[in-house]
Specification:
Blueprint lengths: L2 E4 L2 H16 L18 E7 L3 E14 L2 E12 L9 H15 L4 E4 L4 H5 L4 E2 L2 E7 L12 E4 L5 H11 L7 E2 L2 H8 L10 E7 L2 E11 L8 E9 L2 H12 L7 E7 L4 H4 L7 E6 L2 E4 L3 H4 L10 E6 L8 E6 L2 E5 L6 E4 H9 L4 H7 L3 E2 L2 H10 L12
Parallel strand pairs: 4-5, 12-13, 16-19
Antiparallel strand pairs: 1-2, 2-3, 3-4, 3-9, 5-15, 6-15, 7-13, 7-14, 8-10, 10-11, 11-12, 16-17, 17-18, 19-20
């Protein structure tokens, strides 16, 4: 009989071994005395048992800006199944149970960084936003004479860093409001292994106006020394240019700078020779609604009658079917001729603001059948900036 629940201490070593196999097989198997301490305020462990542990994951909860408010968002990480049990539905069972648990706790949105976009798309997740990855030599970064000074920072400066991060991502959906534990255990440390990061801030008149978190390594095949930026935030354009100038100063020390930025970035407009910059656009994290509670908080006052929506959800029966949306809430209906059809992933993208309805009709899974419905959706779901810069 398949059961879902916490991964108890007795089976944490097994979970550690098959996550090692799933995400770092090149490092070889773990020994029997491998560290199995998963204690952290950032996550708890959940697993599916069927005569033994068959799949497991880390279940996070963090605060993020979503649709003009700060809300709790769930995070799904380190989901793994041993190879001998793959293809038997254990991962799907785990994802379904995790979503149900989040929904029961009032967490209406779950984000993850996919190991396979098609796999999670098949479970109802959809890409939340795209991102740019820049790779360039430091001398290409713009020269700038800073009006302030640079200062080395550490984990004890997390509150100042958090204030800058909040200003830097003001109004950006999914921008994380990191807790002290998240700053100390994730952003400002090497939680995945490797070198500890450097943290530098940019100050003006004693106030922090920006910061960088980065590592330097020469472990790639090209033997080039690469400075990789893992966190970058600034309160205004001058602070942005000053941080880029700080990276430029490393020209005699490193060969390349690698950093990820939102697709709103204007870095190509600032560099001296954009033709020699590698800029890749790639999908970012994925997200999905766990239920319709988040949609019930939206303003549906423009409706003169209930809007009927047919939703397909391959994972959760509670959000699969035809539903009537009105100012009084969302309830299941038996209508066979709905005003619009959508899959749960596209509905999530509309909720986040990745797409407006017109774009969702063109490139995603939205089909609107009446002009009145199209007008209502345009009012409720405008496009918004979306960016989750934290990995888990």
């Amino acid at each position: 009989m398949t059961e879902y629940g916490p991964i108890e201490p007795a089976t944490r070593g097994e979970y550690h071994r098959f996550t090692r196999y799933g995400f770092a097989a090149e490092e070889g198997p773990l020994g029997g005395d491998a560290e199995t301490d998963f204690s952290s305020p950032l996550f708890d462990l959940r697993g599916v048992y069927d005569g033994g542990l068959r799949a497991g994951c880390k279940r996070y909860a963090f605060e993020a800006y979503v649709r003009d408010d700060t809300r709790t968002v769930g995070g799904l990480g380190a989901l793994a199944t041993p190879p001998e049990y793959r293809g038997q539905g254990y991962a799907r069972t785990l994802c379904r149970a995790v979503c149900r648990e989040y929904s029961a706790e009032g967490v209406g949105l779950v984000a993850l960084w996919p190991f396979s976009t098609p796999f999670y798309r098949g479970l109802g997740w959809a890409t939340a936003h795209d991102r740019y990855r820049f790779d360039l030599t430091p001398e290409l970064l713009p020269a700038h004479e800073p009006g302030g000074q640079y200062r080395r920072l550490d984990a004890d400066d997390w509150e100042q860093l958090g204030a800058v991060a909040a200003l830097s991502r003001d109004g950006v959906t999914l921008s994380m409001r990191r807790s002290e534990a998240w700053w100390r255990e994730r952003t400002l440390t090497s939680w995945t292994g490797g070198a500890e990061p450097f943290v530098y801030g940019y100050e003006r008149d004693g106030d922090l106006a920006g910061y960088l978190v980065y590592t330097v390594d020469d472990s790639d095949d090209s033997s080039e020394r690469t400075l990789s930026v893992s966190a970058f935030a600034h309160v205004d354009r001058e602070a942005n240019r000053s941080l880029l100038a700080f990276l430029r100063r490393h020209g005699a020390q490193i060969d390349r700078v690698v950093l990820e930025r939102p697709t709103t970035s204007r870095l190509l407009d600032l560099v001296e020779n954009p033709d020699t910059v590698t800029c890749e656009r790639a999908p970012g994290p994925m997200a999905r609604l766990t239920g319709f509670d988040p949609l019930e908080t939206l303003d549906w006052s423009g409706l003169d009658r209930p809007l009927t929506v047919a939703v397909t959800d391959p994972l959760c029966a509670a959000t699969d079917g035809v539903f009537a949306v009105s100012g009084d809430g969302i309830e299941r209906r038996d209508d066979t001729d709905p005003d619009l059809t959508t899959d749960i992933g596209t509905l999530t993208q509309l909720y986040l603001g990745r797409y407006d309805p017109t774009t969702a009709e063109a490139v995603a899974g939205l089909d609107v059948r009446t002009d009145a419905a199209r007008s209502t959706l345009a009012d409720v779901f405008p496009e918004r900036p979306v960016y989750l810069g934290a990995f888990f």
